């Protein structure tokens, strides 16, 4: 046996109860290699393994993209991967400042926050980003008519865009349980309606 398994710090014989006589201590580099080998045997790095999972996630993203084809939602182009992007709209609140405020509010309603009995954690989480001119002109300019925003406002303010990353391979073919595409769309519309109602209230 190697000395570090059979000898104590002073170089003498180790106690029989010393665990290091029977296992490799410390980082156990063999365990990481074995785990990697086993993982790749179970889920290969090809179209039969992780390729299938990624393809199913993309199919789920396309299914969510189709579910977002409802009034009050303007979708960005169909994604090549699993990131779906869209904008919530409200014709009663024109202008990019109001539009960005609406989408910021929807993001806050569907993002992690400190839980309280009065305001439970949301059932769905989304993320957001802000696109700016001229870097995102190719994406945003074709959408300006649909969201009712002049080019000048887009160039000055930028645009808040909501997004969701689909990581589950089960969203594409729901196994007869909850339809989470419909659930997310319902949560988005409810958050947008709540913000619009509160924004319409007169100031006190």
Indicate the topology:
Blueprint: H1 3-6, H2 29-42, H3 50-67, E1 73-75, E2 83-88, H4 96-109, E3 127-131, H5 137-140, H6 144-147, H7 151-157, E4 159-165, H8 180-200
Antiparallel strand pairs: 1-2, 2-4, 3-4
Helix pairs in contact: 4-8
Can you give a write-up of this model?
This protein has 204 residues and is α+β, with helices and mostly antiparallel strands. The chain is built from eight helices and four strands. It has helices spanning 3-6, 29-42, 50-67, 96-109, 137-140, 144-147, 151-157, 180-200; strands spanning 73-75, 83-88, 127-131, 159-165. It has a four-stranded antiparallel beta sheet. α4 crosses α8. The termini are far apart. The relative contact order is 0.15. The mean pLDDT is 83.
């Amino acid at each position: 046996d190697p000395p570090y398994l059979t000898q104590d710090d002073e170089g003498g014989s180790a106690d029989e109860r010393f665990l290091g006589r029977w296992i490799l201590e410390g980082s156990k580099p063999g365990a990481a290699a074995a785990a990697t080998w086993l993982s790749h045997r179970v889920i290969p790095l090809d179209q039969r393994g992780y390729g299938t999972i990624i393809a199913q996630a993309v199919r789920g993203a396309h299914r969510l993209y189709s579910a977002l084809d409802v009034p009050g939602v303007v979708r960005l182009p169909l994604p090549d991967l699993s990131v779906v992007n869209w904008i919530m709209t409200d014709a009663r609140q024109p202008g990019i400042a109001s539009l960005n405020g609406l989408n910021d509010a929807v993001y806050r309603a569907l993002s992690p926050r400190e839980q309280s009995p009065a305001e439970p954690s949301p059932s769905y989480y989304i993320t957001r980003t802000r696109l700016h001119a001229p870097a995102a002109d190719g994406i945003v300019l074709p959408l300006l008519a649909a969201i009712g925003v002049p080019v000048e406002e887009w160039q000055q303010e930028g645009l808040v865009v909501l997004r969701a990353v689909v990581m589950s391979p089960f969203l594409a073919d729901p196994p007869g349980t909850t339809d989470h595409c419909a659930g997310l769309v319902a949560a988005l519309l409810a958050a947008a309606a709540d913000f619009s109602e509160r924004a319409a209230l007169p100031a006190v």
